[in-house]
Batch of 2 targets.
Target 1
Amino acid sequence: MKSRTRIPTTPLLMILPSFLLAMSIIGYPILDLAWTSMQEVSRFGKMMGFVGLANFAEVFRDPLFYSSLVRTVIWTVAVVGGTLIISLPIAIMLNDDFYGRGLARVIVMLPWAISLTMTAVLWRWSLNGRAGLINATLMDFHIISEPIEWLATAPLAFTVEILVGILVSIPFTTTIFLGGLSSLPQDSYEAAVVDGAKPWDLFRYITLPLMKPFINIAIVLNVIYVFNSLPIIWVMTEGGPANGTDILVTYLYKLAFRFGQLGKASAISLIMFSVLFVFTIAYVLMVMRQEHDNTAEEVKHDA
Amino acid sequence: MAWAGSPAYAKTQVNFTVAEYSSKTGPYFEEVAAAFEKENPDIHINIQVVPWDTLLQRLTTDIAGGQAPDISIIGTRWLVDFASQGIAEPVDSYLTPEFKSTFIDTFMAPSVIDGKTMGLPVAASARAMLVNTDLLDKAGAKAPANWDEFYTTAEKLKAVPDTFAFGLQGKEIETDAYFYYSLWTHGGDILKGDGTSGLDTPEALQAVTLYKKMIDEGLTQPSPTNYTREDVFNLFKQGKVGMVFTFPMLIPQIKAEAPNLKYKVLPFPEGKAKATYGVTDTLMLFSSSQVKKEAWKFIEFAYKDEWRTKFDHGEGFLPVTKNVAAEKYYSSDPDIAGFAAGLPYAKFAPTIANWEEIADTTVRALQQIYLGQAKPDEALKAAAADINKIRSK
């Protein structure tokens, strides 16, 4: 009992240097951001004096902040959800042994190597109303009779941007899932097949539960990544028309680099950091408790 | 590591940040600097060429980091921000009456803030209307001189298949400028005499209602909110649009990419007033500079007629100095003359603080109107109120 409550000092001392280094690298920018968000900042980055929470008050009075926040949530949930739903079957297919599997895997990964900005530029061209490849193709196949102006209205433009967002997130997510699938124990499947399980049962009762840790990692990483992702929306519509596709990060970019309101931009940036921080902690706690419950259950069964 | 390459004897170093207009800009300024250094062996000019897209960000970082250059080319619309933060040096004490008189007054005016000259005009352009004369002939229409004719011409052009009558921009940079052309010629202005927004005036409503009506009647390309300036110009180059409003830099593009296109440069349609949009860039001296005297010596050198002629012809700009403007080229070349014709009545974006935010508010209102999300008068009134708030009026 005694040995359990005693705090082991030696290991703690040993990780102290790297802990301090990590804290200064991670902590300094955040502290600096917090400091900036409570200052009046000139458009050339000069601190003009402490203003307390005035920047935050201004952000919370701004209707564009709330509409961007709502859209950020839709954007994140839709892109991450869509990515997971598509990536898992792709990973399962690529995990099967078939002729040309290596090539197929490379093809799925390749888009990952292209910069997001370039992908967005290509889509912007493809979606051009008069000269775009998409409309030309759809019209050749007589699917549509008139060109569609994909990016002219906010609802359609935002939908298209979500689809592009899903498309570019698939390679990374598929990679995580492939890694997970290759580590699954094959004997469970063999045993289940012997017991007469159908493919859907295999997926539902073996693959999905065993893949849970990988799905959780994919969710956390994708949420952080997508929530903060600027290039797709910025390149395709700059948050327009009429601010109808603005998410927090595009709005923040406009505030900082177009309007020169660095204080207000820092405040939004800090709010975004807090949202992600709370989400990540809450999610990790939830997942850990679940795993703890599962282990407890298993222990009970054994007894 | 400034000392690493320093010569044996101390030359005075002048750092000059140049905005890149085209691939010719950098070599041109290197040439000017070399000629200047020949006459002034004790001064060295360091030229830094920065693309327009990143210029403001670059200067912001340089200034924040205490590494500001001695002189820089900037967009005149940013000058108020530079001046109000004490970053720009007033140049009145350097500006001899003789040197001052070389400039065309219209272009000097935007650089004067609170009675002080905060910089010199370095480049200028004005806007005008381009019409596709082939399409006009096909439609049996004539080039319009006023807004009523513009509308009837557009109606005739609509009958020509696979083309659009009027290319209207509704997306991204200068969407507001495309509206100001109409606003000014209808007799309105961006700001009223008392400094409040001019968007809630009858003239502004008239200007935007005309555009909206043309969108609804199919006299523009469909869904202008999907078309940037470049998209609209591309349609014109492809011969698919009868009339566009544009800048002089489109002319070399047409000559290179669509040499067979038949076009004419005309003034904007008139309403209650004649107007064009004049745009200038400013050469600014930094107040933090330690070598202002040397920097100014270089500036005076760079404004000699031979250099200005070379610069303006090379980049396709309109002249900012009287001697260059008097050249025959600016009245004999029909394209250049078409743009230069508007200079006497050119209007400029007001030099006011927070201009980018005001422009953004205007663009939002315009897009809501073009999309039919808001009624023109309501959207304009709301935008005017927002702008007044931004300006604390």
Note: Residues 27 and 147 of chain B are 43 Å apart (CA to CA).
Target 2
Amino acid sequence: MSIKLDSRIPEGDIHEKWKNHKDHMRLVAPNNRGKIDVIIIGTGLAGGAAAASLAEMGYNVKAFCYQDSPRRAHSIAAQGGINAAKNYQNDGDSVYRLFYDTIKGGDYRAREANVYRLAEVSGSIIDQCVAQGVPFAREYGGLLDNRSFGGTQVQRTFYAAGQTGQQLLLGAYSAMNRQIGKGRLQMFNRHEMLELVVVDGKARGIIARDLVTGEIQRHSAHAVVIASGGYGNVFFLSTNAMGSNGTSVWKIHKKGAAFANPCFTQIHPTCIPVHGDQQSKLTLMSESLRNDGRIWVPKKKEDAEAVRAGKLKPTDIAEEDRDYYLERRYPAFGNLVPRDVASRAAKERCDAGFGIENNATGEGVYLDFSASFVKYGKEKANELDIHNPSQEEIIKLGKKVVEEKYGNLFTMYEKITGDNPYETPMKIYPAVHYTMGGVWVDYNLMSSIPGCFVTGEANFSDHGANRLGASALMQGLADGYFVLPYTIADYLADDIRTGTISTDTPEFEEAEKQVNERIQHFLTNKGSKTVDYFHKKLGRVMWNKVGMARDAEGLKEAIKEIEEIRKEFWRDVKVPGSDKTINMELEKAGRVADFLELGQLMAIDALNRNESCGGHFRTEYQTEEGETLRDDEQYSYVAAWEYNGEDINQEILHKEDLNYKYIKIAARNYK
Amino acid sequence: MAGKLLNLTLKVWRQAGSGQQGKFEEYKLEGVSTESSFLEMLDMLNEQLVEQDKEPVSFDHDCREGICGMCSLFINGRAHGPDRGITTCQLHMRMFNDGDTIVIEPWRSAGFPVIKDLIVDRTAFDRIQHAGGFVSVNTSGNTIDANAIPVEKEKADKAFAAAACIGCGACVATCKNGSAMLFVSAKVSQYALLPQGRVEATRRVLNMVRKMDEEGFGNCTNTGACEVECPKGISLENIARMNREFLFASLSNDIKAE
Ligand SMILES: Cc1cc2nc3c(=O)[nH]c(=O)nc-3n(C[C@H](O)[C@H](O)[C@H](O)COP(=O)(O)OP(=O)(O)OC[C@H]3O[C@@H](n4cnc5c(N)ncnc54)[C@H](O)[C@@H]3O)c2cc1C
Ligand code: SF4
Ligand code: FES
């Protein structure tokens, strides 16, 4: 078996590609759609939007999620906002500029045609969501408000306080509810997909486990859509929800879907630092805070040491003794440089001994709002006609303004750390956040398995080596509302006479057997170590050697170490309880088993890419100033890996060349 | 940031399945960092149980950031534990003292049957929303420009405040009548306040209230306990608004629940 990568990018000028493509794709007539079944794994923005749209068009849709309600998909946690090229602020935004910023932000490793389409439909997303009753932030004149985000110089980000993801997901969920109420959409809560079923080379169904009763079920369909989100939990500690997993994407990979750029992981610069070894996950502080917060560490090492020892408070350090290192290094973008740049700069300062956090590694930097309190306080005083206000009054007024903008984030910070960020700067440090890599898909969002589509964070196509803020929500909704509904029809047009797919075939039998064997192995293994023991062990290797900075040596070690952990896992894992009831240890065991394979592929991919770009930083390849050094001659390609048996080292590399016709490739410069 | 270490006694509700007898089990747990979250403390307990070849305690959780609404738990007699304006995943162990005994129970309400241990079934909330918790707009991408209908900032902010409900069910769990009014009113309010949702407001409130009653939730007697325990500060004002909407809808003869 060998995969042929055909990206199926339509011919013609980039401005016309999507329109022309839509005009020429095949359709399924309304009266035939009821004869077609579609399975959707995941009800986040990508899956939820697709489920609602396809059900509304008249297909029979079955949607699955592992939580108790579609509304709890991880998209709910997104804080900062969603981009769209509306140019409401009249600051020069356009479809082209959003396209340009996204390609550049992704360090020229995203697919041009897909990104252009994303920018093109971005405006409709906002229209759609507002029509659904999504309460975006508004100005006093009643119009929508915007703010700016890292990596751009325009204000194109739409937001709903610090809960944009929640509001957008509730919009998609409400659209789903409307379809569920009408009986067109069948929802399977607390169900987990554990296998893909392929019949005659086409995706024709899944094996799922009812997480409450333990029942193993067969579900057939004419097409399967995977919208299962990102796999950042490979690292154990990340900003992802506890249940976020790579099982669906890994399972389809093993059945023939190429896996693209697995090594591109985004490390988000503004998370709450790790507190200790009882920690289960990391919490993000929205990037939007960088609009008003200034990032610094002490200039003097002895100050940093005193801070870590608890002998000095940040507020004791004089202005001239603070190093606003982002503003120093990147005057044009300052605190608003893209995430990869900001993250690496923080690591650089901490590695050099200037970290301020009193944890095992001394890692942490300040995010300080005091300047904004003053700035906004003065404005507010003017507005309220308060003459000669005292400094104290100004700061009080300023805090109110900041509270209105970010109040919930400040509260969240205080609940977690016990510190009040209005009185003392926040402490932040980079953490694993988003996976730019994912299943390889063509322009139609179809993987290399016919009939198996992949959308949202689970696919690879739009973000390149680094994702700019506020672009994942945009991609999820673009895929679900505006791309897949068209492209899936083109594929399904062949199936109007197929009839229902039987689940009584050897293929379903075999897939179900695989699932059962695995579950039985876990339950009867009676090893000596818990699932989390292995997950944490894997996470440490991933963070230390496949994390924010990697080198060939470390990656080779990581590949071996992961292999060892994996062997030990299968030999020695212990899972108590039964498979006939809720058994969360069993669920975790399956997910960690997949992470162990995927993690290894991530290291292999990172080792293959002898360059630095975006979230992939190989210390051997950097400029004198410590910036990424890309090698466009050699590595301007998508690395798409083909599964080739149990030994992950044997995976076969396929390359999709990236051609930039509409954007001139240049070194990324944020100075 | 190591914090202090606590030794605790936990009384945890264990129940093998719905319809089965449950009972409290007592566990000792040592060395819990005050920097840990409450759920991280439960993770520790579960690690310990698994190591002892016992079944871990099942509890619901996912985002661990206070936003998905998945975590629940009655802790020392309070929904989401002894702090205001937070979910259980945001509760930190610095709220407890060394030597404390902590009682941990599931939500208890007719509308939320126990599935296992500390996990309850909250799908009734979904069903109420199937009955009308949406704006009937096609997902076609051909809607009008988002700025074509200005929305008063105050209204938008109020709609947002109502939309902030995370569907956790603390309001129901804490109410002595098991009423779901706070939750339902938050949804009704969000849409009623926005021009986009106003058009079908009458039918929506009738349908959602009817469904809420069918699902076995109790009546609201205005005790206000829900508002106190709601992690998102959803205001009782929403209940008043829903009542007005409902009254208006009941009085207008031309639109009926369906
Ligand atoms: C804390 C945080 C803040 C963020 N803030 C922003 C932001 O401000 N702006 C922005 O653009 N992006 C942001 N992001 C990124 C963005 O939220 C995600 O990339 C995006 O929401 C992913 O959406 P999705 O639909 O692809 O997947 P998800 O929302 O993760 O949904 C995954 C779905 O798949 C289901 N699932 C997974 N595996 C299985 C299985 N095996 N069987 C059945 N179901 C399964 C889950 O139940 C869930 O329904 C943020 C992310 C995080 C973590
Ligand atoms: S109203 Fe408050 S307590 Fe009730 S479900 Fe919503 S967020 Fe939870
Ligand atoms: S786990 Fe998501 S709100 Fe607590």
Note: The mean pLDDT of chain A is 95.
